[in-house]
UniProtKB/TrEMBL annotation:
Family matches, as Pfam families: DUF4158 (PF13700)
Domain DUF4158, first and last residues per copy: 2-145
Domain of life of the native organism: Bacteria
This protein's name: Transposase, TnpA family
UniProt source species: Roseovarius indicus
Keywords: Plasmid
Amino acid sequence: MLRHYTLDDEDIEHIRTRRRPENQIGFALQLCAFRFPGRLLKAGEVIPEPVSRFIAAQIGLKPDDLLQYAAREKTRREHLGSLRKMYGYKMFAGKHAKKMQRWLDQHAEAAQSSEGLVRGFVEECRRRQVVLPGLSVIERHCADALVAAEQRIEARIAARLDLEMKAKLNGLLNEDADSRISRFIWLRQFEVGKNSADINRQLDRLEFLQGIALSPTILDDIPAHRVTRLRRQGERYFTDGLRDITSDRRLAILATCVVEWSAAIADTVVETHDRIVGSIWREAKRICDARVTAAQSEIAATLAGFETLGTTLLIAKGDEVAIAGAVDASCGWDALENLVATARSLSKTVKAGALAYVEQGYHRFKLYAPECWQHWTSQGPVWLSLCLRRPM
């Protein structure tokens, strides 16, 4: 109320030109309603008491003075005309309605929701001092603008496709990947896997999409949320449903899915590879820990042998003859050679760490790495451009 319903001296001067108290407070309420929420007051509309009291106090009247306001319809019309003339308010009709329609057409493509477009429309009307029409009128205009924007985007994408590309995209609905499903449904059936078989299935789909050779630049000026919406539509439709919709809409959905799925499958390949690497590392860590655990008894025995030899040598310290026989007395030279060899082997086992056993998982990499590398060298720049274009 403080922001929108505080009257300045000029407002009060205009209000005082009305003769009767009921007309003064009614005129003031109409003025405030124009400012916020930006619409006409309806005949018989109930005004919240805090609002009527706040406005009446500023002009030295009582809220009850409003009860007799606009007993004549002509009075309300006269006040409306005066307000428009004094403050520059315009009705939503004629050229002003056309200007607001053009504003809707300009902003509908970027609008992420109908609610957001309605809010923007209302704020723009207030900024331009255009009196708001009824809510149903606003919703209808915004809904029509969103539908028109969607159709323009679909037509723009379809217009960038040549005849050969259109035939390839439509072929996704007519060609079977196997005896059960269409190529289109087969392409969208991908998810992060855990082994080389999963990654090879992903690469098969990526190779097929690479063969279509559809440039991601066809979506360059399409808002990200519109691209996301087209992709989701493609992921919800069945093949027959896509065949039944209009040509531009169908081609826009198919083209968007081909571009987006190329990037998504590339992401899936990388994530699956990460899972395989993680699995190999965990297995190597398990092997390392198991070997160290298995060597504990041997380590203890080796240490005990060196302890016995060391104790004997310390006892014989200072007596060269005794020292010479200390090895024979403790374990013997042959046993000492075995102790040293065992210690060397155990030292390698303990120092090795999990990384020394990672190479045992190489056979899993070689089942898909060559094909994966081929895709990356041929399509790496394309994948990079897709990643840079997609929102994080």
